Amino acid sequence: MKQVTCCENQTACGLKKIFWYLGGFLFLIGLYGWIDRLWYGHLHANYGNVVTWGLWVSLYIYFIGLSAGSFLISSLVYVFNFKQFERIGWVALLTAIITLLMALFSIWVDLGHMERAWKVMIFANFKSPMAWMIWLYSAYFLLLLVETWFLLRGDLVRQASLSGLPGRVFHFLSFGSPAPSEITQKRDLKIVRILATIGVPVAVMFHGGVGALFGVVAARPHWHSGLFPILFLLSALVSGGALLIVVTSIFQKGFEANRDTIFALGKLVLGLLLLDLLFQFSEILVAFYGGIPSHVEGLKLALFGPYAWVFWVWQIGIGTVIPVILLTTKTRHQVGWVALAGLLLVIGFIGMRLNIVIPGLAVEEIKGLTTAYVSTRVATNYFPSVSEWLLSAGIVGFGLLLFGLGELFLSKENKLTEDEV
Does the structural domain 10-370+382-420 have CATH classification 1.20.1630.10? Predict the structure, then answer.
């Protein structure tokens, strides 16, 4: 396949350069956050005894949503044979793998003893939703890797013929598989379809399980809702689809080759976003109409309290109103504006995740506790520290670089599809 040069597509190459520079910059500044976390532990994090989860947990559920959403969209290709998204099937899988890794890094640094993380797997208590969730993560991650390998196996074998270190790396990754033939391609496609079919309920269960993990906490009425698993799944589809709009706009010749795919993703994301908004505002209206103080208090903090700017400016303004306008007016016919809508949605959903985690914890369980005992660790006015922001930026930078490397080494117009076999 002929490689695309910057002379052939200036816009795609310009966006790729920005992508690489941004990834490198975020990764480098994130090193300070990693050093601080490993050396000082949680000392410089701003969460405490009242708000016990902060930015890292919020990003964890955010990245998990991106992963589940990306994978479920890839299943439209490999399970439901949805031709409009065929070009980005392998990109969606790659995105799902990398965002899952970013999620695991985010929750790993939040642990008090990072070195004990492996014990959750070995000594799991299966009466706990968290234990089931962790085992589902492991199954999901393994399934992603195996499905992606079968999808790219023929390409890995072809790349193994390269000379030098790249050829040896691809030979290792192909596990010495023979040269692809029509028979092996048909077999690989069948395996990919089977794995993708298995992966759909796994992705639904593990991300719905994240919502259930919050929803079953009866002591936190802000979270205690049967709608949470559904809301998490809907949000995952919207944010995952929005991220794929951005990725598709940058890679595989970008706007030039992926116009139809970007427009199709834009329509899908718009429909899912409107459905997500319906569920979210239904949840809010029912809580306020019911008037139960413990249910309303967390919502008041998010909508009218110290976190109102996150909801109205970040989540609603940047992450909802502007994208809806871009996807419903004349701009929906211009690929650049659709890509911008996707980017704003990706950014806006971080605010949504913060609005789930922080206000739910900022409600005093014992009235007057934060005024009776004066300490920075006993307070409800949480805002992430510099080290929290920097480490989070480092995780994002790592993900961007990892995706860039994956796309660079596996950059082909099409991977295994039915049209090839």
Answer: yes
